[in-house]
Amino acid sequence: xxxxxxxxxxxxxxxxxxxxxxxxxxxxxxxxxxxxxxxxxxxxxxxxxxxxxxxxxxxxxxxxxxxxxxxxxxxxxxxxxxxxxxxxxxxxxxxxxxxxxxxxxxxxxxxxxxxxxxxxxxxxxxxxxxxxxxxxxxxxxxxxxxxxxxxxxxxxxxxxxxxxxxxxxxxxxxxxxxxxxxxxxxxxxxxxxxxxxxxxxxxxxxxxxxxxxxxxxxxxxxxxxxxxxxxxxxxxxxxxxxxxxxxxxxxxxxxxxxxxxxxxxxxxxxxxxxxxxxxxxxxxxxxxxxxxxxxxxxxxxxxxxxxxxxxxxxxxxxxxxxxx
Length: 324
Fold this sequence. Notes:
- 37% of the residues lie in helices and 14% in strands.
- The protein has helices at 30-43, 61-70, 86-95, 109-116, 121-134, 153-163, 183-186, 190-204, 219-225, 268-274, 276-282, 289-293, 304-311; strands spanning 2-5, 48-51, 75-79, 99-103, 139-145, 167-172, 210-214, 242-244, 249-251, 261-262.
- It has a 10-stranded mixed sheet with strand order 7-6-5-4-3-2-1-8-9-10.
- Helix 3 (86-95) crosses helix 5 (121-134).
């Protein structure tokens, strides 16, 4: 997965956002983005996720998605959904996005709008999801799980079922960027985090829809202990995930602020192969503390961004894990 922060511009002011900039002056140009995609296609075939900010605020998102398709690079779109009307939904379909994820952070307007910083955002997101369905676009709902909505997950799950979306992905809040300001007021403690992971396992067993825990690596340990089959690894940061900012800066993930290079000056393929930070993240023996001693470290790995936010050391202990 290659997450591209295509723009820092956004029409909302979400209190958990990782963005620390909001203007477009340093964004990759259309030509630079095309060159970046061309380089990616030379060494890998990741899913390129157009994110932001709000990616639909770029004027060239259609052109760039279509260009990625000519390179056999699959694309997905992560949006707040509020800008999607009939015309935009049809353009999204034509651009070839395999799936569109719309953020829903509460089961009603007060809970969602308060988190997203704009009245009316909830109803607009639901309209966007409806327009996408009518255009024949596969849809996904993303939810950032935090203190304001953790007790209402069943309500959001039922909304996802009612809308017949393909998937519901639950993102566990990572306190970085602007979001670090809400660590105390919105972050779950380790025990509530554990309870939420078990809630996800319970719903997965029903098999009603694709349900995934994201930025929740110790889901792997919880699922394994419950006998639920798992594959891959929990924290994919720098292992099978990379993040490229609107300015071309390369990070192991969107929440770990370790700059590893810039695609304007060095091809992503070279950064992927030679970065010392990427190499450290791929060496599970570099983990320290209880993460380093844990029998699940090759399956979980702990959230390296939370470790960095808490301890200033991305290889140290994941602070929101109860397991010893």
